[in-house]
Design a protein that fits this description.
41% of the residues lie in helices and 15% in strands. With 314 residues, the protein is an alpha/beta fold. Helix 4 packs parallel to helix 5 and helix 8 packs across helix 13.
């Protein structure tokens, strides 16, 4: 079965990370992915240390495998969450929405492998200097907060710029995407949208239905005006937000318009007012499956493709 040097160093079976999706990636999903041989990741999102400790305890009750926590660096609770993770000695921390350098000494000193998510070569170099174990290079095809550079352009440039392992993310939902990531120089992949339809994912059934019914043109990017672009499924909310973004509405009112909308989607399944974050590969996701089946299906397909990578070359 497909593996890489990343697996041995992290104590996992397959080089597959589950994305740290806010209001979705809880202790149950993380444990299921880790039990399936990948690296499950709990999202700390905008919640305090008490909430996160609860989710860590849930994961530890359900698995004895390594799992990680994703820290959203713009959260008002980042300082207390950072200390909790050092105290808990979680196996892996991934970070997003900023530069984690402030916390690197604390986390690395606690024996934690820190793997920041980056959308540029400059940030990749910066976090490597700060002591990152590896890097997740995430292209703009991904769901949620996105950068400008596509995965196929970003990953090889990051691989060339750093000497630590690179995990590819954004636009990966099957073995073809994984094989492509390896050919670009990555040694693992992170998938978010594909795990939204894992049987063990507790997201609202309406969210899963929207992913399964999506096509190649079902997503939209909004929020560029505020400097924080987000990719989501086209819905009444996202269309209204897109229209407002190019109106005379103030920046404060525009920002307020989106507050709480991800929770409405993930927890309540509100198809009118909710913001259903998803990547452009939603059109490839066609059914709900156990996490183990997802990981094995992706890795088996990728391995077959990589072994026959040159069959079309004369």
């Amino acid at each position: 079965m497909l593996s890489s040097k990343l697996c041995e160093e992290l104590g996992i079976q397959y080089p597959v990370f589950q994305g740290g999706m806010a209001h979705i990636a809880d202790g149950e999903l993380a444990a299921a992915v880790s039990n399936a041989g990948g690296l499950g990741i709990i999202s700390a999102m905008n919640m305090n240390a008490e909430y996160l400790k609860e989710q860590i305890n849930i994961a530890r009750q359900l698995t004895d495998k390594p799992f990680g926590v994703n820290v959203m660096l713009m959260s008002p609770y980042t300082d207390e969450v950072a200390q909790l993770l050092a105290d808990e000695h979680v196996a892996v921390i991934t970070t997003g929405a900023g530069n984690p350098s402030k916390y690197m000494k604390l986390w690395v000193g606690a024996g934690i492998k820190v793997i920041p998510v980056v959308a540029s070569v400059a940030l990749a170099k910066m976090v490597e200097r700060a002591g990152a174990f590896a890097i997740i290079a995430e292209g703009g095809e991904s769901g949620g907060h996105v950068g400008d550079t596509t995965t196929i352009a970003l990953v090889p440039q990051v691989c060339d710029a750093v000497s630590i392992p690179v995990i590819a993310a954004g636009g990966i939902a099957d073995g073809r995407g994984m094989a492509a990531a390896f050919m670009l120089g990555a040694c693992g992949v992170q998938m978010g949208t594909r795990f939204l339809v894992a049987e063990e994912c507790n997201v609202h059934k309406t969210y899963k239905e929207k992913i399964i019914k999506a096509s190649d043109i079902s997503t939209i990017v909004t929020g560029k005006r505020l400097g924080h672009p987000v990719r989501s499924i086209k819905t009444p909310f996202s269309r209204a937000y897109s229209k407002a973004e190019y109106s005379s509405i103030s920046d404060d009112d525009l920002e307020q318009m989106a507050v709480g909308t991800l929770r409405l989607a993930a927890v309540s399944g509100d198809a009118e007012k909710g913001c259903f974050l998803a990547g452009q590969v939603a059109g490839l996701v066609t059914k709900e499956q156990p996490a183990k089946e997802i990981i094995e299906e992706v890795c088996v397909e990728a391995e077959k493709l990589l072994k026959g990578a040159y069959k079309w070359v004369n």
